[in-house]
Write a structure and sequence with these properties.
With 456 residues, the protein is an alpha/beta fold. The chain has helices at 15-69, 79-93, 171-175, and strands at 106-108, 111-113, 117-120, 126-135, 144-153, 156-168, 178-180, 184-186, 191-194, 203-205, 212-216, 221-222, 226-228, 234-237, 242-243, 247-249, 270-271, 277-279, 282-288, 295-297, 299-308, 312-316, 319-328, 339-343, 346-350, 370-381, 385-388, 391-399, 404-407, 411-413, 419-421, 426-429, 445-449. The chain has two domains: 50-170; 172-429, no CATH class. A hairpin with an 8-residue loop joins strand 4 and strand 5 (144-153).
């Protein structure tokens, strides 16, 4: 039997080197692939970073604008004028910003354009914010202003939009029924309530002349809120007094209206030349010269405008029926002892809208929303009145005895003097038909943010 010996074949020369080269090539490919993937990931990260930075810049631009525009008063009969108003504001407001040139803010009929705002970013790089604004009309049209903010970082850009609306009227008059720059003092059984809603009878004082800017003693009552703004001042409520709403101490002050009495002179027809005491007189569109100091007694009827020149103490006794508006020329120097309008008897007051359809009342019938416009005058009420169709404005108020009635509008005291309600005085505030701009109160148009208008 023969035994076969196994043969071992020798490995070919150089095969190990070939295998090594194959692995080297494979690892090299893997290294290249990893390098490519890493570079791609880095590029993606850079892009994401740039996009996020651009988004941050965009939102920063909107925030900068929101901080400036919220509550900003604007003017302009058309879009071009509104744009000019906005550009003028930002040229001044942003003059101290070092990363842009506020002098480069421009406006035309198409909108407002801002020069780029430079913002430092990571790695010593800079991004930019570019802003534009565009109104779709004038302030009296309830226009909308659209702000566009574009953020750019390297090649990434993002744009977002936010809208503001022009709001007409004064928030002060919207939020409160009785507003005063003086302390508001209530005593006895005085009452202020709302005709349609308790909040209509809310009180606000910005006075800093005494600690109790609103003081309610005795059995006094209001159905709305009581708020004061001056530092160190407060609302005082006696143990038997009642405040139906909230009490606010140290609240922010409001924008106060300016008034224009001279506007009503155009409606004057005749000059009062009667005696110091007149009984049962009827007057239409009259001017009462200074230092006349008349007392109207009996059954007095007045139609149209009653324009009182300063100084004057005008007293309505008996029963006064006024269909129109009482306007007082603002004194050069406030002297409340020499400038007064006193209603000591019964008063029936209806608005200018109820004047007869006669040419002499054309124009005046449109001057709605105001009954008494008396800056620099003290207004005193001691008798009853039914309904006063309009806002009542003076520089000092006193309600005494059984003075009571409905005021369709606001009660506004313009000076830090006094606003008092004593005895059984009872005011009912009815704001259901109150206008945002009562006649003689200069219009105000301010911007408010439109919630939910953010979009990209």
């Amino acid at each position: 039997m023969h035994t076969r010996k196994s043969e071992t074949r020798p490995v070919a020369a150089g095969s190990a080197l070939l295998i090594a080269l194959i692995f080297v090539a494979l690892f090299a490919c893997m290294a290249v692939a990893l390098a490519v993937v890493s570079e791609s990931n880095l590029a993606i990260c850079r892009n994401r970073r740039d996009i996020q930075q651009a988004q941050n810049l965009t939102e920063t631009g909107l925030y900068m604008v929101q901080r400036e525009l919220g509550g900003l008063e604007v003017s302009g009969a058309d879009a071009a004028a509104v744009h000019g108003c906005l550009a003028n504001y930002f040229q001044v407001a942003w003059a101290s910003i070092k990363t842009t040139s506020s002098g480069g803010v421009t406006a035309d009929a198409e909108g407002v354009t801002f020069p780029p705002i430079l913002v430092p970013g990571p790695g010593g790089q800079f991004g930019t914010i570019t802003l534009t604004m565009q109104a779709d009309g004038g302030v009296e049209e309830g226009t909308t202003i659209t702000v566009a903010s574009t953020g750019r970082f390297n090649d990434a850009t993002r744009t977002a939009y936010y809208d503001f609306r022009v709001d007409s009227g004064y928030r002060l008059l919207n939020d409160f029924g009785v507003v005063s720059r003086s302390p508001i003092t209530m005593g006895g059984g005085a009452l202020i309530d709302g005709a349609n809603d308790d909040a209509e009878a809310s009180l606000f004082s910005s006075s800093s002349s005494q600690t109790h800017a609103i003081e309610m003693a005795g059995q006094t009552q209001i159905t709305g809120d009581a708020a004061v703004s001056a530092e160190g001042c407060e609302v005082y409520k006696g143990p038997n007094a009642t405040i139906g709403g909230d009490i606010g101490n140290g609240v922010p002050d409001y924008s106060w209206p300016d008034v224009d009495t001279a506007h009503f002179e155009q409606y004057v027809e005749t000059v009062y030349s009667g005696e110091s005491t007149e009984t049962d007189g009827t007057y239409t569109n009259i001017r009462i010269p200074p230092n006349t100091n008349p007392t109207f007694n009996g059954n007095t009827q007045l139609y149209g405008v009653v324009y009182i020149e300063s100084p004057n103490v005008v007293t309505f006794e008996g029963n006064a029926t006024i269909c129109g508006v009482v306007v007082c020329e603002e004194p050069t120097i406030e002297n409340l002892s020499r400038n007064q309008v006193n209603f000591t008897g019964g008063l029936v007051a209806s608005g200018v809208e109820y004047l007869p359809d006669e040419p002499r009342f054309d124009g005046l019938r449109n001057e709605t929303g105001t009954f008494l416009l008396a800056p620099g005058y003290a207004a005193n009420f001691a008798g009853n009145f039914t309904t006063i169709n309009g806002t009542v404005v003076a520089s000092q108020f006193g309600f005494a005895g059984t003075a009571s009635g409905i005021i369709r509008g606001n009660l506004m005291n313009l000076s830090d003097t006094a606003l008092t309600l004593e005895g059984d005085a009872h005011l009912t505030i009815d704001k259901s038909e109150a206008t945002g701009h009562p006649a003689g109160i200069l219009p105000r148009y301010a911007l408010i943010c439109i919630s939910g208008s953010y979009r990209e």
